[in-house]
Amino acid sequence: MDSLGLVIMGGTARGLGSIGFIRFIQEENIKIDIIAGSSSGSFVASLYALGYKWDQMVSILEKIEVFKYFKIQNLLKYRSLLTRETFRKELSKIVDEDVNIENLPIKLIIYSTNIDCKQRFCFSSGNLIDAVITSCSYPLLLPEYRSNLGKLRDGDLYEDFSCDELRSLGANKVIGVKYKQPQSLKDKKDIVSTSVSILRNLNRSTCVINNQNTLDYEFNFTSDIGYLNFKDIRKVVNSTYLEAQKQRKEILSALNK
After folding, report:
1. Is 4 exposed, middle or buried (0-12, 13-18, 19+ CB in 10 A)?
2. Farthest-apart Cα atoms in the chain, separation
3. Which of 71, 75, 199, 256 is least surrounded by Cβ atoms within 10 Å, i.e. has the fewest?
4. Residue 188: per-residue pLDDT
5. What distance in Å separates the CA atoms of residue 66 and residue 117, rounded to the nearest whole number?
6. Mind giving me the DSSP string for 5-45?
């Protein structure tokens, strides 16, 4: 019997629309054996690996209030608006601080980017909260993690998916879920969104891809909510779910369902 892997990329609040795809697979009774996530996709992947249903994920994540933790003085001291310690306290309201990835009921991989060697770095063991924070570490927004292996940053600095790790863990089929910004969307009135987009594109241009594999199906979705507008994620979750319903035949065919 085929073992199924799911890779979820991010896009901050917009990327959480991937929960709509989670709703689709849960309603279709499709079992995910191995799940991976990068940036805000690591939130969704982690909650799935912990056993949450899609509606529970929405209720949890729409309560995140990132802006209230942004402090200008942090920029002077830490060169970022948000500290890892503050973010950790917020995440510990959702997940026990002592939870390790290797002890989860579903196999989980969290991606980050090693800036020093310009390669992906994968967390498949160790503290779950630390891995999620590192996968979400944007320049100026959240500090990078300095390890003995190099400086680790946001896991979405790569443009494309990697399936190697999931296939090495036994996944015969892999689906990728990715937010794509529509051509018509312009964030002229949203300074934060514009800044995040510029930083992401600058950092992506410095990264190389040396470990990728062909997906069995790639599912893309769009959204026009602000990058950090977590209160409106239900809107993009619903639209993503409807898009998955439109592609139902193709998705099930790729999975031989």
Report:
1. buried
2. 55
3. 256
4. 47
5. 30
6. EEEE---HHHHTTHHHHHHHHHHTTPPPSEEEEETHHHHHH
State the pLDDT at residue 155: 84
Paired tokens of 87: 């973010």
Listed as own residue / partner, the contacts of 184-187 with beta carbons closer than 8 Å and 24 or more positions apart are 185/222, 185/224, 187/226, 187/227
pTM above 0.85, yes or no: yes
- C-alpha neighbours within 13 Å on the C-beta side of residue 139: 13
Is the distance from CB of 37 to CB of 46 less than 8 angstroms?
Answer: yes
Distance separating alpha carbons of residues 189 and 105, to the nearest angstrom:
43
What's the pLDDT at 103? 97
- Angle at Cα 2 formed by Cα 248 and Cα 216, nearest 5°? 50
Helices within 39-91 (DSSP H only) = 40-49, 54-61, 72-78, 84-91
- Those residues of the chain that have pLDDT short of 50 are 187-188, 205
